[in-house]
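hi!! sorry for the late reply, been swamped w classes. u asked for the two structures so here they r. pasted raw, havent cleaned anything up. first the sequence of the first protein and right below it the tokens
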Amino acid sequence: MLGRWRAEFDAGRAAVRAAAQGRERVEPVEPRRPRIAELETRPDIAGGAPATLADAGDVEDLRALLGEVREIAELSQARIAELETELTATHWRADRVAEVLELPGVRRMLLRLLHPDAHAGADEEQRRALTEASGKVNAAYDLIDRAKEAPPP
């Protein structure tokens, strides 16, 4: 039973380490619950004889695994702190950009420069690029307007 549990643990440990190093996202895994029949056949749980000294090796293996879990938790906490710092910096930059976009006349100026109707001589590819750019400007202002209306967290 410990062998199967260890394989599942090793797979989870590898996924968490990869996520802690920022390489990939970890999806939560539903833990496997032992079946009643498995519990009844184990004497240390089913009310039979207590765990024997032969289980001492298993206990040491579990202690080693717990030490690895502690290490992974510390790596995860360091990564979380790093990501919080990046989020704070990104939020600060976004606030500065929003302040510039909210200056009087900036919206009108941007749309005047980027609206496809203002460029009558533009070919189809240029018109597509201008349409995309003016759509992004409108989306940015919609986001700013929604952020103003949203209650503070």
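now the second protein. again sequence first, tokens right under
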Amino acid sequence: MTERAMAVQRALSRVGERRYSLTGNNCEHFATWCATGIAISQQVIEWLRTLFRIALAVAGTVFTVALAQAVLAE
């Protein structure tokens, strides 16, 4: 079976499915799964990376402020 035929077969196997999820089963997950057999979304991965970077920046800022307050309190 050709890759294209496998992709079409995968897509048809999910006709009528109603399990959409923005982070776990979105249109990019579906398209990638049809083409490769692996459901992955680079958009979701990048979104999570950005969220993690923001969380680290906030944690670093909170730590710096707490440290500065401790030093000034002495």
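hope this helps!! also noticed smth abt the second:
The two ends are 74 Å apart (CA to CA).
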